[in-house]
C-alpha cells in the first residue's frame, strides 16, 4: 500500500514528565514510530523535562531503553533509533520552582510550532501553564496538551479550565482522551457520515438499543492510591465512555471541523437524562484464590470504590427517544474487550414464520483488541431442508481488508501529530468536559449520600449479577465479553 503519511512542519515538543511512565510507555515510543514513518521532519525536536538532574546523553539512554521496551517491531532498527535520539534533548525543570525555566526557553527556537505536553500529575498543570507564560516560553504558535484526569468533579474541572484560560486561549488547549485517537473511533464517523447506508437507519425508529462495553482484565495494579479516590465512574465513564456515546449519538456536524464536531458532541451530553438509581449497577472485584481482591489491591479493607459500572441511559431528543444506551466498564473482567454494538430492531414482520427464530442486524465496532467492524446480516443457511436463517458477519477487520501495511498508528501517535498540525477535532473542549462532570457528579453524590456499597463480582466474570439483570429486565442481553 502507498504510504499516505502527511508530513508536518518542524516543531519543538516539550514533554513535561519526560521521565515518567506515560512518556516512556506511550509518548516517546509513539513519536519514534512517527519518525520511522517519515512524519518527523528534519527540524523536529523532542525535549524531555522533569526534575531529575541528568544531561541529554543520559536522557537519550533512557529514551532508547523505553523504545526498546515499548516501541514494537519498529524498535529493532537500531539505526533508526539512533537517528531519532539525535532529535531528543533534556532539560531539568521544576514545575513548582524557578529552576530550569530560563534554560528551557533558551532551547526553544523561534518561528515554529511549540507544543508542551503536560505528562505530569494534574496538580502541576496550573504551575506549568503559569510558568510557560511568565518565563516567556509560550507564544501565539504554542499549544499545550493536558492529560486526564481533567478534574475530579465539576468544580475542580471549572477551576482547572479557568486556570488554563488565564494563560492560554481555548484554541491552544488540547485535552487528550486517547480513545478518540483510535482508528476505529474515527472510522465510526467515516461509516456514519461517509455512507448513505447507515445514517437513514441511525435513530430510534430502527435501532433497538446500543451497548458500549470497555472491559479490562487487569486490576488497579500500582495505581491503587489514585484509583481508589476515583473509581470506574470518574476514571472511565466520565471521559472515555461519554466520548464514545457522543460520537455514536451525535447529529451530523455540518463539516469535519473541530468546533462543528464538538458542538454536536456537547448537545448529546446535554440531552442525557438524569440517571435513575435503579438503572445503575456498581461492582467491586473480590479475591480469587491467591489473587488479591480490589480492597487488598488498594490497601483499604472497607473501600467502597467501584471497579465496575453498568448503566442504562436515555437521551431526550428526537433521534433517540425510546432507544436506550447500555454502558458498562470494569476491571478484572473475563477479557480485554472494548466494543460498541448497535443492535437494530426486528423486521416488522417475518415472512419465514416463528420457526425461523429471531434475527437482528448488529453493527459491532471493536476498539480493542483487533480494531475493526462487523455487521451481522441474516441469510439463508446453505443446504436443503427449508428456509433456515442464520446471521453471518460481514467482517471489516482493517488488517484483513487493507493489508498489513494499513496497521493503524497508536492513538497517542495520531493525537500528538494532530496537536502539531493544530487540529483540535479529536480533543475535548472545556465546555464538553464540564458538561460531562455536570452529568456524572449527581450520580457519584447519590452513591455517597446513600452509603452505597458496590456489589462484589468474581475476577474473570462479566461483572456482578445485577448488571446482567439490568438487561434481562428489558428482555435484552449483553453481548459476550470475549478477547
Ligand atoms: P509518573 O510516572 O509519576 O511521572 C510523573 C512525571 O512528572 C515524572 O517524569 C516526574 O519526574 C515528573 N515530575 C514530578 N514532579 C515534577 C515537578 N515538580 N516538576 C517537573 N516534573 C515533575 O506519572 P505518569 O504515569 O507518567 O502520568 C503522567 C500524567 O499522565 C498524569 O496526569 C496521569 O494521570 C496521566 N496518565 C497516565 C497514564 C499512564 O498510563 N501512565 C494514562 C493516562 C493518563 P521527576 O520526578 O524527575 O520530576
TrEMBL record:
Its EC number is 1.1.1.49. Pathway: Carbohydrate degradation; pentose phosphate pathway; D-ribulose 5-phosphate from D-glucose 6-phosphate (oxidative stage): step 1/3. The active site is at residue 240. Residues 14-187 form the Glucose-6-phosphate dehydrogenase NAD-binding domain. It catalyses: D-glucose 6-phosphate + NADP(+) = 6-phospho-D-glucono-1,5-lactone + NADPH + H(+). GO terms for molecular function: glucose-6-phosphate dehydrogenase activity; NADP binding. The keyword Phosphoprotein does not apply. GO terms for cellular component: cytosol. SUPFAM superfamilies: Glyceraldehyde-3-phosphate dehydrogenase-like, C-terminal domain, NAD(P)-binding Rossmann-fold domains. Substrate binds at residues 178, 182, 216, 235, 331. Belongs to the glucose-6-phosphate dehydrogenase family. Catalyzes the oxidation of glucose 6-phosphate to 6-phosphogluconolactone. PANTHER family: GLUCOSE-6-PHOSPHATE 1-DEHYDROGENASE, GLUCOSE-6-PHOSPHATE 1-DEHYDROGENASE G6PD. This is Glucose-6-phosphate 1-dehydrogenase. It comes from Poseidonocella pacifica. The lineage of its organism: Bacteria, Pseudomonadati, Pseudomonadota, Alphaproteobacteria, Rhodobacterales. The gene is zwf.
